[in-house]
Amino acid sequence: MTLVRPLARSPVAARAGQVAAAALLACTGLAQAELPVEQLRTEPLAPATAERIYLTDPVMPHLVDGRVLVIDGQKMKKLAVIGSGFSGLTALSPDRQWLYVATTYHSRLQRGERTDVVEVYRTDDLSFSHEIVIPPKHVQGLMIRALMQPSADGRFLLIQNATPATSVTVLDTQTRQVTAEIANPGCWGAIPWPTASLRFSSICGDGTVQTFDLDAAGASAGSSRSVRFFDPDKDPVFMHYSLSGSTMTMLSFHGTVHRITLDGNAPSFAPTWNFVSDADRKQGWRPGGFQLFEVVGERLVVGMHAKGFEGTHKNPAEQLWTVDLAAKQRVARTPGFGTLSMTRTREAAPKLVLLSGLDNTLRVLDPARPASMRKPLKASEPMGETPVYLETH
């Protein structure tokens, strides 16, 4: 009979077996031991400064999942992300204590029962406060300033509708009730008057401004139509606007400056002028972008691109032109950084915050320091997926 002997184990293999056995015993002991309960906590945000940025991103590759990115503009770091649903519109209250998000939800994400709401968030800790149901009519498009704004005193929220018939929903933020739906046929946007909390205006397709009055309860109290201030066939205006006191600045597709005073009994219009020279016009220089310009003091900063034609009015900036509004002439041409949108900070010496349409980065410029217009004071890494709209605290 042949005897079969077991294979001899090497010292290395024996040691490996001992280590594995010890590990198994240790794991068994840990499984029997009770782990401490993890304590969850919320870290408070640092107090908001004038440099905090709210960046609206509709995330166009998956529109049902929009976001608002809250960014520390001092460190250029992301603080938080707030969901904004499908094609959400965003606005801050005049006192900067509340962030409003008007949005749409469907019960089956992209289908099913539709619910439109205004969601209200506290800006001190970015916590959700409450929501108010609104008619399922609010415009679903890329955010611009004229689509949703609070009244000057913050009581009413004005929301542009499109079904495609145009109207404005008036929402009382105190009673949390819709007080009116005001038709603005042939017109677009709800621009609150800075010194009249019960009045707002729309820009109309025939080149006029229609102004609407509210009563103390937020119901319609009449309207009036202005003279024609631009020719929509020859030189239409961008819907973006910038407010300085009671003066609203708007630009045309070809560089005409419109300054409208929203005060008194009706809008008043200053004489128009154009900052694009004949030589620049021959090279096709035109304004372009989304929030394509900003007024800081008596200076206008606008994104410009060359070889423009019908349809290039959303092109990112190849250059930034600084225009002296008092002298009515350009005073600087600086790099454009691919700027798509811009806004100013709310401080004694405002800075400009730029959003690049090329790589989603943010830059901060000081319009009072010409050197910073060529080399930003600070810049961020890319933010979001398809961001379009900026607002500062």
From TrEMBL:
Cysteines paired by S-S bonds: 187-204
Pfam families xrefs: Me-amine-dh_H (PF06433)
Keywords on record: Disulfide bond, Electron transport, Oxidoreductase, Periplasm, Signal, Transport
Signal peptide: 1-33
Gene3D superfamilies: YVTN repeat-like/Quinoprotein amine dehydrogenase (2.130.10.10)
Region (Disordered): 373-393
Principal location class: periplasm
GO cellular component: periplasmic space
Name under which the protein is recorded: Amine dehydrogenase
Family under the similarity heading: Belongs to the aromatic amine dehydrogenase heavy chain family.
GO molecular function, one term: aliphatic amine dehydrogenase activity
Record localization: Periplasm
